[in-house]
Amino acid sequence: MRFYGTMATPLVRANTRSAVLFKTTQRIVTTRLSSTIVPKPKKEFGPSYNAKVVEEGWYEWWNTQGLFRASSADFQNSPKEKKPFTMITPPPNVTGSLHIGHALTFSVQDAIVRWKRMNGYDVQWIPGTDHAGIGTQSVVEKMIMKERGLSRHDLGRDAFVKEIWKWKEKYGNHILHQMRRMGASLDWKNEFFTMDNDRYEAVQNAFMQLFQDGLIYRDTRLVNWCCALETVISDIEVDYKNVNGRTLLNLPGRSTPVEFGVLHNFSYKVVNPDHGGIDELTVSTTRIETMLGDCAVAIHPQDERYKTLHGKSVYHPILKKEIPIVCDENLVDMEFGTGVVKITPAHDPNDYACARRHNLPIESIFDKLGKLNHNCGLPELVGHDRFEVREIVIEKLNQLGCYKGKDNNHVMRVAVCSRSGDVIEPLLQPQWYIKCSELAAISKKQVENGQMKIVPDLFVQDWYRWLDNIQDWCISRQLWWGHEIPAYQIKLSGDKTRDQGLDLWVVGSDKINAEKRAVELLQKRGYPKDTLFELTKARYPIQVMETGYDILFFWVARMAMLANHFAGNKVPFETIYLHAMVRDAQGRKMSKSLGNVIDPLHVIEGVSLQDMKENLLHTNLPEKEIGTSTRNLEKEYPNGIPPCGTDSLRFALVQYTQQSRQINLDISNVIQTSYFCNKLWNLFKFGLGRLEQQPNLDFDSRQILSSSQDLSLVNRYILSRMADTITKCQNGFESSRLFEATDALRRFVVEDVCDTYVEFSKSALSKSDLDEKEKNATLRILHACMDISLRLAHPFMPFVTEELWQHMRSSLPVLDTNTNSPSLMVETYPDTASFAKLHDEQVEDHFKVILSIIHASRSLRQGNQINVGKELPFTILCDDPQLLDQNGPLKLYINEIQNFVKASHITVLDANTNSLTLDQWTSKAIDDKLKILVPTREVLKAQLEIAAAKGTDLGTVIKNKNALLNKKLNKVKLDLEKLNIKMNKPGYGQAVPVAVKEKNNQRLIMLRLEQEMLQKDINSLELIKNENA
């Protein structure tokens, strides 16, 4: 919650005791969004995945159907209690459009709320935008200057504020469009803008309550002042430019650049120096113009060079006055320069602290525009710009013989306003502050005792460190755009002596209320403590506050402190969930000046390089930075960005969240994710074609829970993988590790369903003699795989999953009898407890063994150019007692293995009891304990049949086979040599991670086995060649 002060307007209060109340004014405008009922999209099932076609129409239909405010519990046959789940969007600033970092926020948050909605929660995800007072005012003023050559002062306040509202309507609405395009299922009826009537009233009430509770006060302190914007700015709005030696910087509003990186030296004469002692002190400064505000010079109390100067003074050469020499061990470094420091307390934070320690006078020599005021002591310079007087001061010092030269190679950091680009001027200004120490202690304790949780927990110490070192919070700004401060200053015109020097303020929601409080203040000189409003509502606290970790302190912590105060120290958030910062593929911070800021719509819809470059021309970037940005765009996106779709972007961004501090976003990863969407689409293309052949079959994913017995191994395997995936997805959400859910989901869909189960079911369903019961079981499980995949994927990829779910319902009308839900969004999410009994690790282990045998058999066939349809006699040679056990996979599923590998017959041999000579066998090693064998004679026989069909003789077949085997053997030998060299390097055992060493050891074993098998195949081939010579 932020407050912004604006320029004061006097309001005269009529009373017997004459006084004036000074108040700020601000016009408020609000907008409302309207919605129109739209029909449910109806589309043909396309031959391939097309994101643009798939995503069209669904968002508008969801919204007008009220599904963003609905829950899966609303559509269950038996009533279910709905627990509330509330989350707000960190409101984006209306200073432009959303970037890819915002897209990450909405991807994570929408996944969470969709998951909660499918789990039966009463979800309210509240959208909003931030008026961003200083940022918006700065951007709009730059735009008007660029387009019309006018400043806000040229326009006047009312006209300028109207221009800002136009900007807000344009870019605020564009931001809302981007939110919708991202698929964010927000509660639009509760949309807010931080300058709407409700928020305006809340800000006013909050300020008045905090003021009456003694937490808000007014004080004159040194602040970060932006002369271009004429306002104080916060520390996080200050950027720093590193300067290595003399550098000319272009600053706003100046026709000539300003010099930085130069250290000027000048001297102060000592007043009444000791005979033969030091008669002058030389100081160094990069801002020699500020010497007009010097009130002292400082030395270190332990510096032996200056012991005789303790208690003495120096003579200011230009102002013609004495200023003291003070001893300050905190400010002065004896080893740096001359060990003497000039003190300008009104324009340097370190000097300010020194002046407070020594009770030195603190007078600002610059006004709010950065021009010299009367305190500079030289009437002829009053009204001159701070940087323009630099040469004048140097010239005067030269004339007085006090200028000692300069160093053009000084390294320094220049503080610059991030909004205007102007150099920050430390300035003494009265501002409003909130006392933070007690508020911070409460928020820290809530995390310590577990009332409020921060994930990932690596940010907990950051939370403690910041709250332990918190400073009072400056909440006022001097702006034309923003919330006005509801405070009135009392100016007495009667008895002026009674309250001489007393700064009297009252707060009030309007002038009448403020006048009443002014009377009370003047009578009692105290502040009444009444509760004016209650902040706690039905939706308090928020269950999850999700945002980037960079605003943990400046936004989340401050909200926590204030919300605690207004809600009786009740925690505002149960969980604070933080994600990493998005950077480009090179790890650079995304910046308009670098040309690497990515608009999410460009990734979703695609954009050409030419359009990206033209967009730069419509920004407020200087021409020089536009050139730099253009070159970076040409390097990063030579072919533009292809259309990837919302689902692909969301899924890829969530997968990136395994990186807790920095995400180096590579667009190619988003493109790869679109292939996953295509994989899902093809699954349904295959599956619906099979399921439609049995449209009246009872397809219900819940039925498989009670009918999982007497199923084939492959069916039990895929159900076990399904149960495990459901558990991992639920756990991923519950532990705020969403990337674990996306990883499990992708593996299940791609590896388990598409690459394995589809292939097995395709083979099974194509058999004319397949048992009817087994066929129906396979179809039901295929449907369950499709259905569960959609439910698990929906929180991450809402559009493609909704499209496929609706297609499946229209293709299989029987599904309407199993659900009342109009949309996948309000279907139930698979729960771990119900599916847990399907998980069987032994079944998975057994099937993986069989799968490895199948893959090995296919590899053997492929390596010898024998098609899968040709039956071969296989022998399995095993050295693993567990696999050979009566309850092991080789004995239990020998018939399935024979069928899967297309074996004319199959034999299992124990390697420990069978001294098999492998010279006459063609083999494929699965690992060091398991091999599959086919007699080499049978392999050659099969190859001869193929050769005969093509007219090739036996000698050519043997020659070609021998060449191929030797080529493979040579490659294996070379790989072995390279691996041995790597593993025998000095320090290998200490420097290489354990996981890498284990991987290398396994690879070494497999390469040695492959070398052995290839050599035996070559030997067998030589025997056959000799027999047929």
Automatic annotation (TrEMBL):
GO terms for biological process: valyl-tRNA aminoacylation. PANTHER family: VALINE--TRNA LIGASE, MITOCHONDRIAL-RELATED, VALYL-TRNA SYNTHETASES. Its EC number is 6.1.1.9. GO terms for molecular function: aminoacyl-tRNA deacylase activity; ATP binding; valine-tRNA ligase activity. This is valine--tRNA ligase. Belongs to the class-I aminoacyl-tRNA synthetase family. Pfam families: Anticodon_1, tRNA-synt_1. It catalyses: tRNA(Val) + L-valine + ATP = L-valyl-tRNA(Val) + AMP + diphosphate. InterPro entries: aa-tRNA-synth_I_CS, aa-tRNA-synth_Ia, Anticodon_Ia_Val, M/V/L/I-tRNA-synth_anticd-bd, Rossmann-like_a/b/a_fold, tRNAsynth_Ia_anticodon-bd, Val/Leu/Ile-tRNA-synth_edit, Valyl-tRNA_ligase. Residues 58-519, 526-666 form the Aminoacyl-tRNA synthetase class Ia domain. It is found in: Cytoplasm.
